[in-house]
Design goal:
Length: 132
């Protein structure tokens, strides 16, 4: 079965695993999904990720992160740019999620990065998702 939007699928799997406090979540891997998982790890929303080599396709396994007494680290996660409606932002219009408390994941010409990194680099791009 083909998938139209693997990024939305990834975000939905992470959102669902977070809702029921699962320790890990698995999905088919791609370069862009690995980059999004890297950003989520660097920003402290998930504990880590592994790419498991298998046939016919590699598997991306994300280890979820929770606080004391199963307190959720991820409060919300939302897909912004969709295949049917792409959302782009220039370097001056990059969004601030919750006034800077959240993170916007942006796909730029210099790779996938956070909104803060894109502002520092002086580049704009496609706004993939918000996470807070």
């Amino acid at each position: 079965m083909t998938m139209n939007d693997p990024i939305a699928d990834m975000l939905t799997r992470v959102r669902n695993a977070n809702a029921v406090c699962k320790p890990t979540v698995s999905m088919p891997s791609s370069k862009k999904l690995v980059e999004i998982a890297r950003i989520m790890t660097e920003e402290g929303y998930v504990q880590g990720f592994d790419v498991i080599e298998s046939q016919p396709r590699d598997i991306l396994e994300i280890t979820m992160k929770y606080g004391e007494k199963k307190a959720k680290v991820i409060r919300g996660i939302k897909r912004i740019s969709k295949p049917g409606l792409r959302i782009y932002a220039g370097k001056d219009e990059l969004p601030r999620v919750l006034g800077g408390l959240g993170t916007a994941i942006v796909s730029t010409s210099k790779g996938v990065m956070t909104d803060r990194d894109a502002r520092k680099a002086g580049v704009g791009g496609e706004v993939i998702a918000y996470i807070w």
